[in-house]
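Annex B, item 7. Sequence and structure tokens for protein A, then protein B.
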Amino acid sequence: MQLDLFFLPNFALNNLTPYFMKLKKVLFGLCLVIFLSGEAKCEESSSNGQRTTLTQEKSNKNRPGLPSKVYVECIYDEGYLSFSFPGGIVAYTVRVYDDTDEWYGYVCVDEPMVQVPLFTGVYSVECIANDGRVFKGTITF
């Protein structure tokens, strides 16, 4: 006598299908709630300010090469600019400018944030590091 092994599981699954469908919906809803609550926490903890990446200016513009792996993160939030300091850099002279306005400041590892005037529009940001490297980018205020 040969026992059909596929008959028993199919029979059992056919009777439990409505419960599995309900369980699948509940699990999907639970996963969705967990995912959305994680997204809300990330949004609460992140800055509302503008973020930009300042890239290193090449010393020889006629010679092509790989882009630099060293960059500076610049964040503007409520009248303050803050900067990241990649390895070996301890201070920047900061210049924020456009066609009509220009502002200079100084930041260091101990005080990476500086208060700036209330700008509006798109401005260029230039950071000259203590070792002479120049980082440039644009930011919208």
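Protein B:
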Amino acid sequence: MGSYSRLLPVCRFKTPASPSDPQPMAGSSRIAAVLLVSLLSAFSASAATAEENSRPKWEIGVGGGVEDKYSFWTRHYSFGTYSESMETGWFGSASVRRAISNSISLRGEISYLRYSGSYGVYSISPPVPRGVRIAEIPAVALGVRLQAGPGGGGRGSVYLDLLPAVFMAHWTEGVKYGDEWGHRERENKVAPGIVLGAGMRLPLSGDTTLEFGPRLVRTGSLGWTQDDSFFTPEEPEGLNEFGLSVSVTRGL
């Protein structure tokens, strides 16, 4: 019997694959899907990097706007408060900006702000005089800009400016007869301050952008300090005025 058992053929049966076993085709599909997602991610990252790198690092701009009327001094009496102000002012500005990152940049600005006003002058004979008061205030500011949003490819962004500044006020106050000055006094004063701005940036064409938004200007006392001044016996207050700014910038 032992010799016959060695002559019997050995039969092997292949077990059918169950539906849950991984198939070669399914594994290939997973690999293809992973490769496709990786390629798309790499393409998106490279496109974003290319867009960021294509943006100009330097930018220059010119603009202007209006500021709220300047209440330059206030007196407090037992019966009430009296203040004096000049009409709505206007300003022009030129700026330069250097990008540090996609959301932070250094920004410098020079500006010229002008206010004017009038006051009554008593006269018993013609020609009738009028009191004129003018404040011309150039400023130099340097600070940072924070920006959120892409700001490129036809899309807008928002910004916030924090600009410490030095303001140099030039006051002229006196009496005019028609267009001719009669009595006139002048004084210059320098004061620190800050310019806070916020707004939107909208692409116009290429690297040209429109910026617009509100701003706040605050300074130390900029005022008339001559003790013998007949027209302004008290030192005026500093600027604390809201305004609206519009500018056009160009990338370099």
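Comment on protein B: The first helix runs from residue 2 to 5.
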